[in-house]
């Protein structure tokens, strides 16, 4: 097994009214307060969102410490701006649309993409894992495709939307799929083929620039990493660390298989799309599609299959016990979608959902 790669995580969060839960367009105010606290927050497309980014981490413990600091500081900054920070894939309650953050790029995206851009508030989590080069990133992307639905089901955290149960665990992923370059990544034979595809999308104005390549695995445009983007922002820090540990082990396993010349998996686009939808609907406590055999299986079985596939990498990285404990805890207590739905079903009161989400956001 190669050297243990470094990892980094970006988390997107909602800013909402502390009482009503309605999204608040105050990301600049929150970023200003965060700067005074020593934290550089990124502005997202809609002005009710901010993003944090960890330092490069070598261990899961380092990553956990960074995530706790970032969530705590961002929550304090939001509080100073009269907002509440929520780790949820979508706002449980929202206006008809969202104000676009006032930057030239975001205004242009809003003009070009209309309601797709204006009806956002979509919050995901992006895990960066170091890879040797861009060709390795593309090869890793191909090998991760069969496992992406399981990671989506694990992190699903957007069951409640527009003051209603959507019937899906990750409604975020359903809405996100409306973007022309979002969702399951295509299979590419090389970085050159990937770059040619991106160039075509830009030249044809399907996307504005290469920053709008939203596929759920992609070579990072800014770092020497492969970026796994399939997840809703997880409800808790612990779930984010679990996601990152699994993602790193999956990348390590994919690189090892590539080095040994193992054939890359063949996954038809329609079966991958079907598996995505099933993961978005059922989440952690339902059934999914085993893309190695094209058969139905409980999601928890699919996750165990993923753990079995990456177990040697988990052992090398020292993350096997962490993954076992964390996965057991999520199965026992429920992921974000399950927490939201339990709160909603008590009395169909949005205040219960907001309280549960807010508590999980700062559950350390």
From TrEMBL:
Pfam families: GCS2
Main function: ATP-dependent carboxylate-amine ligase which exhibits weak glutamate--cysteine ligase activity.
Protein name per its UniProtKB record: Putative glutamate--cysteine ligase 2
Gene Ontology MF, one: glutamate-cysteine ligase activity
Lineage top rank: taxon: Bacteria
Catalytic reaction annotation: L-cysteine + L-glutamate + ATP = gamma-L-glutamyl-L-cysteine + ADP + phosphate + H(+)
Keyword match Iron: no
Lineage, highest ranks first: Bacteria, Bacillati, Actinomycetota, Actinomycetes, Mycobacteriales
Its EC number(s): 6.3.2.2
The entry's keywords: ATP-binding, Ligase, Nucleotide-binding
Transmembrane residue ranges: none
Family designation: Belongs to the glutamate--cysteine ligase type 2 family. YbdK subfamily.
GO biological process, one term: modified amino acid biosynthetic process
């Amino acid at each position: 097994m190669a050297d243990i790669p470094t990892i980094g995580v970006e988390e997107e969060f909602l800013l909402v009214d502390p009482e009503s839960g309605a999204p608040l367009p105050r990301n600049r105010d929150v970023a200003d307060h965060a700067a005074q606290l020593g934290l550089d927050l990124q502005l997202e497309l809609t002005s009710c969102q901010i993003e944090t980014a960890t330092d490069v981490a070598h261990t899961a413990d380092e990553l956990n410490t960074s995530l706790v600091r970032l969530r705590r500081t961002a929550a304090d900054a939001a509080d100073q701006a009269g907002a509440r920070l929520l780790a949820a894939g979508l706002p449980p309650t929202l206006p008809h649309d969202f104000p676009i953050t006032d930057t030239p790029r975001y205004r242009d995206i809003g003009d070009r993409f209309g309601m797709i851009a204006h009806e956002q508030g979509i919050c995901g989590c992006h895990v960066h894992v170091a890879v040797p080069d861009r060709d390795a990133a593309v090869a890793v992307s191909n090998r991760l495709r069969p496992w992406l639905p399981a990671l989506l089901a694990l992190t699903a955290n957007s069951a409640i939307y527009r003051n209603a149960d959507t019937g899906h665990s990750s409604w975020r992923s359903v809405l996100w799929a409306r973007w022309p370059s979002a969702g399951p990544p295509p299979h590419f034979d090389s970085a050159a083929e990937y770059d040619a595809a991106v160039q075509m999308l830009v030249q044809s104005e399907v996307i504005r620039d290469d920053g709008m390549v939203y596929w759920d695995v992609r070579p990072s445009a800014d770092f020497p990493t492969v970026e796994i983007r399939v997840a809703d922002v997880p409800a808790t820090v612990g779930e984010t660390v679990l996601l990152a540990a699994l993602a790193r082990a999956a990348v390590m396993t994919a690189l090892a298989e590539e080095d040994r010349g193992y054939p890359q998996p063949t996954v038809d686009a329609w079966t991958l799309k079907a598996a995505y939808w099933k993961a978005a609907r059922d989440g952690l406590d339902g059934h999914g599609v085993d893309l190695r055999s094209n058969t139905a299986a409980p999601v928890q079985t699919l996750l165990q299959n993923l753990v079995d596939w990456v177990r040697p990498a988990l052992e090398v990285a020292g993350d096997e016990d962490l993954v076992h404990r964390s996965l057991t805890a999520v199965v026992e207590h429920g992921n974000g979608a399950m927490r939201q739905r339990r709160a909603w079903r008590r009395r169909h009161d949005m205040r219960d959902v907001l309280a549960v989400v807010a508590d999980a956001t700062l559950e350390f």
